[in-house]
Amino acid sequence: MTPALFRSKTRRTAVAAGAAALGLVALSGCEKPTPMATVTVGSNSVSSEAACYSEGKKLSQEELQDCIGGKSGKKLTVHDGERIRVGVDPEVAESGWAMVVNGQGTMAEASEDTYRTFDFDQIFAPQQSTAGAAAVPKTAQVAIIEVTKSGEAKGVWQFTLSRAS
To answer: How many CB atoms lie within 10 A of CB 32?
Structure first.
């Protein structure tokens, strides 16, 4: 009776050890999620993980340009006069962040705040058309960029804001 009991216990131990090893292998394939950024307009919000992120290491200039130019990001509609609120995870704020709208910087310097508010006119600034007249754009490609103290990019979050007709 003892040998059968011993074999049963050994089998259970082996199964438990195998399951634990399989669980560790499965977890090792997972990547840590990137920090989040959120854009809120009125009572509507969208949150997103980074479109480009390299575990907090700096992005090359090429990676940064590809990321800013290549993805449209989550979408939100903005009515004339509404305020746009941007929030970032505390670890992004600690490093510092800036915002680019349609390829143009909107902040004089990087922010270490977790939350900032922007006026409609800061995001949908009139732009010169080819005919020379200023027109308010229908959409705004917003990129939130985590930066190092020396100004190098560490991550990019993308959002598309559309003006309500």
So the answer is: 8
- Among 72, 73, 52, which residue's Cα sits nearest to residue 146? 52
Cβ-based burial of 130 (10 A; exposed 0-12, middle 13-18, buried ≥19): exposed
First to last CA, the chain: 82
Reading the block at residue 120, the tokens are 């409609």
Whether the Cβ atoms of residue 137 and residue 127 lie closer than 8 Å to each other: yes
pTM (2 d.p.): 0.77
Q: Which residues, including other chains, have CB under 8 Å from residue 30's CB and lie 6 or more apart?
A: none
- Would you place residue 28 in the very low, low, confident or very high pLDDT band (cuts 50, 70, 90)? very low
pLDDT, tens digit (0-9, with 9 covering 90-100), for 83-119: 999 999 999 999 999 999 988 888 989 999 999 999 9
Q: Please check whether residue 131 is in contact with residue 46, taking contact to mean a CB–CB distance below 8 angstroms.
A: no
